[in-house]
Design brief:
Distance between the termini: 46 Å
Number of domains: 2
CATH architecture of the largest domain: Orthogonal Bundle
Number of helices: 6
Strand order of the largest sheet: 4-3-5
Structural class: alpha+beta
CATH superfamily of the largest domain: Winged helix-like DNA-binding domain superfamily/Winged helix DNA-binding domain
Helix content: 40-55%
Shape: flat
CATH topology of the largest domain: Arc Repressor Mutant, subunit A
Bound molecules: zinc ion
Length: 143
């Protein structure tokens, strides 16, 4: 948490009470919260905060690498990037269960291919979609 606040300060962003509240709200969740769930948590201390404000803060925090945005068809979820450690996610397309996977599928080949076009890669978003173990069991039982 402190290293995220430090990162914001270094980039010249103020730690407004709202930003602090959004970051603090993550602590209330064991799994990855949606923006709506974060809003509910933030409103406990800041009743006047709108969903728009949450989205704006999440967009900024994502851009700064303080938060990971994980795309799901049922609604994006967010994760606090506490370690600043780069990794990807497994997203269940049935129940929405989201898990971290400690690997990155991007190799130098992509960087080289992009360079041929004069393009400098500064980041990427990658999610694996499929069925979680619980949903796979259910699928097998229905057969
Ligand atoms: Zn599932
Ligand atoms: Zn993760
Ligand atoms: Zn990666």
């Amino acid at each position: 948490m402190e290293n995220i606040l430090e990162k914001l300060r270094q980039k010249g962003y103020k730690i407004t009470p709202q930003r602090r509240a959004v970051l603090d709200a993550f602590q209330a969740f064991e799994t990855f919260p949606t923006a709506q769930q974060l809003l509910t948590a933030v409103r406990k201390t800041h009743p006047d905060v709108s969903l728009d404000t949450i989205y704006r803060n999440l967009a900024l925090l994502t851009e700064l690498g303080a938060v990971h945005e994980i795309r799901r068809s049922s609604g994006n979820v967010y994760e606090l990037a506490t370690g600043g450690h780069h990794h990807h996610h497994l997203v269940c397309t049935k129940c929405g269960k989201t898990e971290c996977i400690d690997m990155c599928p991007i190799s130098d080949a992509y960087t080289k291919e992009a360079e041929k076009k004069g393009f400098l890669i500064t980041g990427h978003i990658f999610e694996f979609y499929g069925l979680c173990s619980d949903c796979r069991k259910k699928e097998n039982n229905n057969r």
